[in-house]
């Protein structure tokens, strides 16, 4: 019950909450199961995640599909399906030339015939054993997983969908915003107290959504570069005190790369935390960092167990360090280890 109350405080109140950070399961427990699958989400909830995250792209017939990217050659068995061989193509997505199979070239019915695969098989070799077990999910199905788990556990299990490449999808005749608002209305997720946080790296979609729904919004911020729809507005400018005030006019959260809160030196060792957490809170924003992973290759030097990149280091210790900075939430591929770090 206490966990449920704290989760609600951090999710739904306007001011940053004084509590343990929320644990957001990044694509589910994606360190232990193929990402964006029912298996990954259910394991994450079992391990104590407060929020589960689906990345959203669109099908040819305008359904929101739960995949990290619209290119699905690396996360499904589509490449082994002869009936779809002629769908392989080359596209430019947000300036990046990409070869593969794309969700917008498939109907929902076709996508539902595919099965998920591990995206990082050379790093997460154990996850390969689960290849082929789970179908692709829709956003509606992820919300159902969260709601059923909330009823089962007595905890508030929220969802944190990320709208992927909205400018690109609008350019190919699949504008996301109207369809997404309609989906949120159908699912009764448009209120200020709805158990959801909507994320995007682009600015315009969040600004427009802020005038249409009361749902909490999160501005994602990369370690470099700029939003696809605002190339003149760099992420570095967005996390200055003035930039954060501008974000606070349309969003409740700012979501930076973890190294913007806890930078690393040339050797990969953490240095003193930046002022970003304090600056975000001063602007009235809550702050969530992404993404904490257990493998040595992703950890700062002081938390690595060895030079072997795929072996786990001390992720729980890293989570404790991040919690000490005052962040309000942490994205992790390993929600169980993240929860351990907060005990």
TrEMBL record:
Signal peptide annotation: 1-19
Keywords from UniProt, A to Z, are:
Glycerol metabolism, Hydrolase, Signal
Mind telling me what this protein is named? glycerophosphodiester phosphodiesterase
List the source organism.
Brevundimonas nasdae
Q: Does the UniProt entry include the keyword Transferase?
A: no
Please indicate which superkingdom the organism of origin belongs to: Bacteria
Catalytic activity as recorded in UniProt: a sn-glycero-3-phosphodiester + H2O = an alcohol + sn-glycerol 3-phosphate + H(+)
Which family does the similarity line name? Answer: Belongs to the glycerophosphoryl diester phosphodiesterase family.
Q: Which residues form the GP-PDE domain?
A: 21-342
Recorded hits in InterPro entries, A to Z, give: GP_PDE_dom
EC number, UniProt record: 3.1.4.46
EC top class named in words: hydrolase
| Transmembrane regions listed in the UniProt entry | none
């Amino acid at each position: 019950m206490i966990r449920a109350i704290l989760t609600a405080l951090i999710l739904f109140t306007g001011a940053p909450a004084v509590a343990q950070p929320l644990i957001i399961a990044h694509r589910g427990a994606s360190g232990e199961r193929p990402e964006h699958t029912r298996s990954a989400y259910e394991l994450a909830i079992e391990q104590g995640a407060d929020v589960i995250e689906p990345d959203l792209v669109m099908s040819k017939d305008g359904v929101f599909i739960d995949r990290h990217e619209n290119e699905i050659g690396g996360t499904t068995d589509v490449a082994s399906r002869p009936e779809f061989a002629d769908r392989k193509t080359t596209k430019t997505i947000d300036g990046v030339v990409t070869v593969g199979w794309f969700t917008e070239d498939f109907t929902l019915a076709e996508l539902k015939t595919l099965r998920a695969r591990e995206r990082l098989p050379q790093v997460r070799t154990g996850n390969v054993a689960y290849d082929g077990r789970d179908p692709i999910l829709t956003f509606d199905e992820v919300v159902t997983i969260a709601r059923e788990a909330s009823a089962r556990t007595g905890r508030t299990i929220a969802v944190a969908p990320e709208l992927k490449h909205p400018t690109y999808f609008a350019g190919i005749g699949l504008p996301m915003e109207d369809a997404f608002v309609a989906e949120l209305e159908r699912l009764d997720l448009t209120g200020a107290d709805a158990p959801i946080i909507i994320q995007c790296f682009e600015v315009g979609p969040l600004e427009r959504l802020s005038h249409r729904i009361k749902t909490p919004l999160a501005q994602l911020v990369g370690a470099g570069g700029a939003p696809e729809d605002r190339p003149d507005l760099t992420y570095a400018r967005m996390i200055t005190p003035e930039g954060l005030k501008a974000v606070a006019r349309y969003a409740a959260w700012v979501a930076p790369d973890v190294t913007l809160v806890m930078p690393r030196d040339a050797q990969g060792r953490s240095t003193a935390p930046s002022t970003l957490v304090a600056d975000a809170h001063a602007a009235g924003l809550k702050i969530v960092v992404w993404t904490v992973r257990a493998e040595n290759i992703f950890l700062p030097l002081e938390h690595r167990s060895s030079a072997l990149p795929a072996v786990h280091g001390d992720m729980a210790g890293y989570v404790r360090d991040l919690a000490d900075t005052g962040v309000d939430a942490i994205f992790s591929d390993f929600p169980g280890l993240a929860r351990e770090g907060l005990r």
